[in-house]
Amino acid sequence: MSFAVDTNVLLRSIDVGHAVQPVAQNAMIKLGKDRESLSIFSQNLIEFWAVATRPIANNGLGLSIAQTEEELTNLKRLFKLLPDTADILPEWEQLVVKHQVLGKQAHDARLVAAMNVHSVTHLLTFNTDDFKRYDEITVVNPQNIT
């Protein structure tokens, strides 16, 4: 199977002290040991940067630029970074119309579009409800990886 790792899983995996940090880490370790393909997209890195550098008081991680840069380097080393291609936009347009996507949920649709273009079948995410509408992919909560 091929898995895309959602940004919330990436963020929680480095959020020391958060209740689901070990869940995020253990799920990715287990999938890696099972030789599952784990991928990320540039969108994940951009979203990661936004939350990692946001102050803790504003629901971020409060990391410095240097710390966040180091984390991005680690992510690109640990996961296969799949490229943005010209095929993603038309796939996204088809998905947002088909699934009647509104507002900020358009970002989730873009992730699904990128997955479809790259034939990535599974999404590892804590936000399973956000992706229920997409019958094109299989959504997996890290808590269900044992």
Question: In words, what does this structure look like?
Answer:
The protein has 146 residues and is of the alpha/beta class. The chain has one domain (2-144): 3-Layer(aba) Sandwich (Rossmann fold), CATH 3.40.50.1010. It is built from six helices and five strands. Strands 3-2-1-4-5 form a five-stranded parallel β-sheet, with helices on both faces. α3 (42-52) runs antiparallel to α4 (65-78). The model has no long low-confidence stretch (mean pLDDT 97).
Concise description?
With 146 residues, this protein is α/β, with parallel strands linked by helices.
Characteristic key phrases:
single chain, 146 residues, alpha/beta, Rossmann fold, 6 helices, 5 strands, 48% helix, globular
Tally of strands: 5
- CATH architecture identity: 3-Layer(aba) Sandwich
Into which percentage range does the β-strand content fall? 5-15%
Estimate the mean pLDDT confidence.
97
Low-confidence region ranges: none
CATH class: Alpha Beta
Q: How many domains make up the 3D coordinates? A: 1
Distance between the termini: 16 Å
What is the H/E string?
EHHEHHEHHEE
Spatial order of strands in the largest sheet: 3-2-1-4-5
Task: Give the overall shape, derived from the CA principal axes.
Answer: globular
Largest sheet: 5 strands, parallel
SS-based class: alpha/beta
Query: How many separate helices?
Result: 6
CATH superfamily: 5'-nuclease
Task: Please write out the topology.
Blueprint lengths: L1 E4 L1 H8 L6 H13 L3 E5 H11 L12 H14 L1 E3 L5 H11 L6 H13 L4 E3 L13 E3 L6
Parallel strand pairs: 1-2, 1-4, 2-3, 4-5
